[in-house]
Amino acid sequence: MNLNKQTKASSWQYLLIGIFIFYMLLPIVSTYVFSVATRWDRTILPEGYTVSYYIQAFKASYFISSLRNSFILSIATVLVGLVLIVPTVYWVHVRIPYTKPLLDVLMILPFGIPTVVLALALVQVYNFAPLARSPVLLIGAVVIYSMPFMYRPVSNAIQAIDVVTLTEAGQSLGANTFQLLRRVIIPNILTGIWSGSLLVFATVFAEFTLTKLIVGARFKTFPMLLVEYTRINGNTAAAFSVISFTIAWLASLLILWVGSKGQVPYQKAIGAR
User: Fold this and answer.
1) How would you class 98 by CB atoms within 10 Å of its CB: exposed for 0-12, middle for 13-18, buried for 19 or more?
2) Is residue 220 within 8 Å of residue 65, measured between CB atoms?
């Protein structure tokens, strides 16, 4: 009797997982198919297939420059976020742990601020050269917008280790704060760092509103090119979506691979000097 109940429970679990996977993959697969479909509005499956829309996408006048700008924006945001978040979270956990609830609240605030409001506020406040509507101001905006995605994985990773003991061990060996971070703390929280970097990269690479309102066409990114082509040709826009998704997917695999190669055992880090 118990075996039958367990079998039924497992069947329902597999069914729910299957429905969830189908729900998540259907839009992605449909976008891939639509990007190579000649016509797909009268039948269940496309009437024909072509790669001409990808050729049009690669021949777009701003394809290379917009792709380059998106990479610059995403990578710069990841680096600035790491420089701001990692030392701050470490210092809060070690020196002023009573301020952690306040920091948690501050990291939630970007979720409650609409990107339109954030962009307009920054444009109004920083309306002087050289920041006015510049890529530097855009990087600052997306750092604020994506900060929670970097903060939470790094904070969880630091909470998972005995950061106070590691700090005391490093200090007993004569290490300063910079050496502690570089040779003891960071090697032990690489999983959180790579996870946060992945989330920030994927989020910023697909960001549209802040870029459009702050810099406009002067610093055209890949999402802006995609939105532009939605008004020109839906199939070409789908091709751009596939390219964007594939780049984010490959970047995710690369980050995960580099992160797995760079992990340092906990015991080894304790003895670092």
Assistant:
1) exposed
2) yes
